[in-house]
Amino acid sequence: MIRDNNLNLRAIELKDLDLLYEWENNMKLWRVSNTLTPFSKYQIEQYIKASSLDIYQTRQLRLMIDVIIDNNHSSSEIPQLQNSETVGIVDMFDFDPYHNRAGVGIMIHENYRNKGIASAAFKLFINYATIQLGIHNLYCNIEADNENSIKMMTGLGFELIGTKKEWLKVRNGYKDELMFQLIRD
After folding, report:
1. pTM of the model
2. Burial class (CB within 10 angstroms; exposed 0-12, middle 13-18, buried 19+) of 153
3. Which site among 22, 31, 32, 169 is 20 to 30 Å from 178 CA-CA?
4. pLDDT recorded at residue 77
5. Is the distance from CB of 140 to CB of 146 less than 8 angstroms?
6. What span, in angstroms and rounded, lies between the C-alpha atoms of 80 and 119?
7. 108-116 LR contacts (CB < 8 Å, sep 24+)
8. pLDDT below 50 — which residues of the chain?
9. Angle at CA 93, nearest 5°, toward 156 and 44?
10. What does the alpha-carbon distance between residue 139 and residue 59 come to, in Å, rounded to a whole number?
11. How many whole angstroms separate alpha carbon 129 and alpha carbon 103?
12. How many CB atoms lie within 10 A of CB 100?
């Protein structure tokens, strides 16, 4: 597990099936995930079972974000999860081990947005990806009008490297998508 005193990033487990089923079938999120059709529980269960495969096989790493609600511990011991709530997912995709690069994304349940959770989870994840996995280059794509995500990613050191004009089809036409990049030594 990847953790600090407030958050825990953990592997997906079968106990997450119902939550993932709800999130993956939320049509409000489909535009950013390039989803066009609903997922069955069977499909999600198979995905969860396959998620235990090595990142070098799947080229993806998806971790659940748990907020630690009660972490009764002294500063000298590792926090033990007494009570936590799963509030989102951090995702690394298109992992390219030869070039040491990958895309990243995050989804925080709407009840927990704008509380600093996404930024804190990304900090933990970036440290893990760069130190443990040796990733040199992380990138993300953000809708041009998503001011909160743009502010968060630039605050984490990501730099705007380009604009994909009219990249995303929306109800009333098309939207631009921005590409951000973080290079770490």
Report:
1. 0.85
2. buried
3. 22
4. 46
5. no
6. 22
7. 108/65, 109/23, 111/87, 112/67, 112/87, 112/88, 113/148, 114/148
8. 74-81
9. 120
10. 15
11. 11
12. 16
Which of 124, 103, 109 has its CA nearest to residue 181? 103
Both tokens assigned to 171: 């109800």
Residue 184 has a CB neighbour count (10 Å cut-off) of 15
pLDDT number for residue 87: 96
Q: Which two tokens stand for residue 19?
A: 């939550």
pLDDT at 141: 95
Residues 50-89 pLDDT 10s: 887 788 888 899 999 999 886 555 444 444 445 889 999 9
Distance CA 143, CA 165 (A): 11
